[in-house]
Design brief:
Shape: globular
Number of strands: 16
Strand content: 15-25%
Helix content: 25-40%
Order of helices and strands: EEEEEEHHEHEHHEHEHEHEHHEHHHHEEE
Radius of gyration: 21 Å
Structural class: alpha/beta
Distance between the termini: 46 Å
Length: 452
């Protein structure tokens, strides 16, 4: 039987950037938006379930274009061994828990750009099949050319204290044949390895154009991971599958190379170790319509990083953020956040508490606050957290706005987010594909978020 829900008398921000409209009705049929119009001028079926949203604001469900549902930031420090030893045989459940933490706070779709490929694809499929509730997941698995959690790319010190068998077992889950060993191979073998990896069914291909050695060699240098020839071969394979190509970069050289090769999504587009992005690169980003994942922080958190002389402060570059914003680049919500264990947050002290941008569940709220503090208008920030993410991953025909034909992911607020972007936190209800989310029950099986 056809199931119809009608959301009536709301103020609508549809995600396209157009002016908000009051007194609007959204009709949802079998999980998709079937009509949008002024209340009183929209046909309502007799058997429809009607939801009165007078005094409420309705937005598209938010999308986060760069998360790591098993916490990659934790894997870069001493908490990595305990985290992975504790959850080694429950990684699917950890990923689902993280997807539930995101969904509870209004994020209906996440793009997981670094994870153990087997568990993240299994968790993706469990949620897609309706076996588990959670934000919709699209996954890259490993970053091509990166080693696993206990390699030099994350926390090599683990190999000195954990058993070699455990270290190898964990690393293998992430590397999946396309780890750092790939950098030693001839290009023809790289093509074969990447082709085999894509056969596993990942949704996008993320390539380490820059290294990921901050915990090993420091944050005062960066290296190119692959030759241009090797990068072109990998991109060819992704294009053959018609999936997005993502670049990981930490330097202006790597960013320029990614832009030259027209990677669809530039993850960490502003992270260049405080080197300014040149205008020619920005012009090319605009000309090629490349999407820019920007990892911003609030002014308060930035002051905290500076006051504590935290090494990760170098990853935050407001000057480059301003350059991309002023140029009109397609900036989208990108936080690098994961489901962080409470003991790790406790051990981080002051930088692990208020407004930490890498803590899933509050990360997107802090991101929109941070980006508006840099000068982005609240409406533009909302588009950056909805339509721009969908466009970046070529999914705007399905997600990212409230328009007929699209999946009915809806975020209902108690207050106007254009009056204050912090009103995104004042959630009345969340709907995913037309079904109301029982926010009070999430996460259903706390593992990482449970306090001992």
């Amino acid at each position: 039987m056809t199931e119809t829900m009608v959301f009536e008398s709301a103020s609508l921000i549809d995600g396209t950037g157009g002016a908000p409209r009051s007194g609007m009705t959204v009709v949802v049929t079998d999980g998709r938006i079937s009509d949008v119009g002024e209340s009183g001028f929209v046909a309502i079926p007799d058997n429809a379930t009607r939801v009165d949203l007078t005094g409420k604001w309705i937005l598209p469900g938010l999308l986060n274009g760069n998360v790591h549902l098993t916490d990659s930031m934790t894997m870069m420090g001493p908490g990595a061994i305990e985290y992975l030893a504790r959850h080694e045989h429950h990684l699917e459940d950890v990923i689902i828990e993280a997807a539930q933490v995101a969904l509870k706070q209004g994020v209906t779709t996440v793009f997981d750009t670094h994870n153990a490929v087997g568990p993240v694809l299994a968790a993706r499929d469990r949620i897609a099949a309706g076996h588990d509730v959670g934000a919709r997941i699209f996954a890259a698995g490993n970053i091509i050319g990166f080693g696993g959690p206990f390699s030099a790319d994350f926390f090599a010190a683990a190999s000195q204290t954990a058993s070699p068998t455990f270290v190898k077992r964990i690393n293998d889950q992430w590397e999946a044949g396309v780890g750092h060993q790939l950098t030693l191979l001839p290009v023809r073998e790289i093509r074969v390895r990447v082709r085999d990896y894509l056969d596993r069914g990942v949704d996008m291909l993320k390539i380490g154009v820059s290294d990921h050695l901050p915990m090993t060699v420091g944050l005062d240098r960066s290296y190119l991971t692959f030759s241009e020839h090797a990068l072109r071969v990998m991109i060819e394979e992704a294009r053959e599958r018609e999936i997005p190509v993502l670049s990981h970069t930490l330097s202006v050289q790597a960013l320029q190379l990614s832009v030259d090769l027209a990677a669809d999504v530039l993850i960490h587009a502003t992270v260049t170790m405080r080197q300014p992005i040149d205008h020619a690169t920005i012009d090319a980003i605009l000309a090629k319509d490349l999407a820019c994942g920007v990892q911003t922080v609030t002014d308060k958190y930035r002051s905290m990083l500076d006051a504590t002389q935290a090494p990760l402060a170098v990853l935050v570059d407001a000057a480059n953020e301003h350059l991309l914003m002023q140029a009109g680049a397609n900036i989208f919500l990108s936080t690098d956040a994961g489901c962080t264990p409470s003991d790790v947050l406790d051990d981080l002290g002051v930088v692990g508490t208020d407004e930490r941008p890498w803590t899933l569940g509050s990360d997107h709220f802090d991101w929109v606050r941070g980006i508006t503090e840099k000068g982005m208008a609240p409406m533009t920030a909302i588009v950056s957290a909805t339509a721009n993410v969908a466009r970046a991953y070529n999914m705007f025909d399905e997600l990212g706005s409230i328009e007929p034909g699209k999946v009915a992911d809806l975020l209902v607020l108690n207050a106007d987010p254009l009056d204050s972007i912090d009103n995104l936190r004042d959630i009345h209800s969340v709907y995913k594909a037309g079904a109301e989310v029982d926010r009070g029950s999430l996460p259903t099986r706390p593992l990482v978020t449970a306090r001992s």
